[in-house]
Amino acid sequence: MPVVLSRDEIKQIFAHLKGVPKIMASLLYGSGLRLMECVRLRVKDLDFDCAQITVRDAKGGRDRITMLPLNLAETLRRHLVSVKAQHEQDLEDGFGTVHLPFALVRKFPNAAREWSWQYVFPSSRISYDTRTGTRQRHHIAEGLLQSAVKNALWGAGITKRATCHSLRHSFATHLLAKRYDIRTLQELLGHKDVSTTMIYTHVLNRPGLALKSPLD
Q1: Would you name the residues annotated as active-site residues?
Q2: Strand pairing partners for 64?
Q3: What is the pLDDT of residues 31-53, one digit of tens each?
Q4: pTM of this structure
């Protein structure tokens, strides 16, 4: 069974997070993103007007659309202001390119410098792309968020064996508790088969646990 955090536990975890890790963790819980889906987000994937996020080349090689939490929109906008300033400085310094998927670098040679293709969560330093030998800014390392969430769990005194993926599990379970349609949830999570999504109904039902213990 997936490890699911209660709403109160989610609040406790977020109270021990700050900065970029808190924004990323908010997307895992508020949008149901997988860890690497969050890490690889590009600026063009965020649609503030429609309050949605396009997840590109997700598990199974498919794209999908999920919600962009309204409560996170302004924080994300402010974050992107600083990321854009950094990108503009990189361009001035003779860098500013980013890795492009598939054959896009040949089809659109200037796209690698465009703002829309930059990572929402870029690395703090410029490094060599081993595939091309180009010095450019890659996305943030996923281990940074994993460590931040682990420390937040410890700081909050939560003993569940939770990870970053537990935030996605909690997203699904809490939406089902609000009576979201299972098919809609399947689309938001990007599950190929609805039977994968159905596991969260088992978390909610918890057969037998609705009864009172004889000790109570």
Answers
A1: 34, 59, 165, 168, 191, 200
A2: 55
A3: 999 999 999 999 999 999 999 99
A4: 0.88
